[in-house]
Write a structure and sequence with these properties.
binds uracil, eight-stranded mixed beta sheet, Rossmann fold, alpha/beta, 207 residues, binds 1-O-pyrophosphono-5-O-phosphono-alpha-D-ribofuranose
Length: 207
């Protein structure tokens, strides 16, 4: 399923991202804030476990997410601020890293680095801000699926309808949480209206 956020605050933050005047610090900070909203939505139906906590009133069994069962996987480099955001919210989660770069002529993604710990039985929160053709997200999901996770949930900031549909059609079992579905892709497979290149905007590069 594809779940799009609808909160007015989400729209406001997306407008900050689209604003070319937003510098890299503000851009990354806004990605972080939007990721918190996505995390909140994605975790809504997660089950709770109980843990013993030493409270002011003595020992108590209290509800908590099983953070150790969650792994955040980020796609470098634009996914870095999203990883930081989820790890702040869920400090007990583990982290995995994939480095991918989309070839801007063929628009195919290429994997450069795979540093995934064991995914077996884990719930994977896969974070990447942009879903353009959907190729990078499909490649990341395919790679993770081979490591036998319990489930994969993706958190994304902006997506094209065609890219999201591609991912959804290929992996209907993967829930996709997206802050904003945009109009489509241009001839260079950039999202319109989009925000440009999320990696460049985050790290002050022009490629
Ligand atoms: C961006 C983005 C996605 C990919 C989306 O990364 O973070 O990974 O493009 O495009 P797709 O849906 O058509 O595959 P990019 O390859 O530009 O690398 P970067 O994060 O280093 O800028
Ligand atoms: N990658 C981006 O960062 N932006 C796009 O619009 C497409 C791919």
């Amino acid at each position: 399923m594809i779940y799009e956020l609808s909160n007015p605050l989400t729209k406001t933050l997306i407008t900050h991202l689209r604003d070319a005047k937003s510098d890299a610090v503000r851009f990354r900070h806004t990605i972080t804030e939007l990721t918190k909203q996505l995390t909140y939505e994605a975790l809504k139906n997660f089950s709770l476990i109980q843990k013993s906590v030493n409270t002011w009133n003595g020992e108590a069994k209290l509800d908590t997410l099983d953070e150790a069962s969650i792994m955040v996987v980020t796609v470098l480099r634009a996914g870095m601020p999203m990883l930081d955001s989820v790890m702040q919210t869920l400090p007990g989660a583990s982290a995995g890293f994939l480095a991918m770069k989309r070839n801007e002529t063929t628009h195919e993604s290429k994997l450069y680095y795979d540093r995934l710990p064991s995914c077996k039985g884990k719930t994977i929160l896969l974070v990447d801000p942009m879903v353009a053709t959907g190729g990078s997200l499909c490649d990341a999901i395919e790679l993770i699926k081979k490591r036998e996770p319990l489930q994969i949930v993706t958190l994304n900031i902006i997506g094209s309808p065609e890219g999201l549909e591609r991912v959804n059609a290929a992996y209907p079992e993967v829930d996709i949480y997206i802050a904003q579905i945009d109009k489509g892709l241009n001839a260079d497979k950039y999202i319109i209206p989009g925000l440009g290149d999320a990696g460049d905007r985050s790290y002050n590069t022009v490629e």
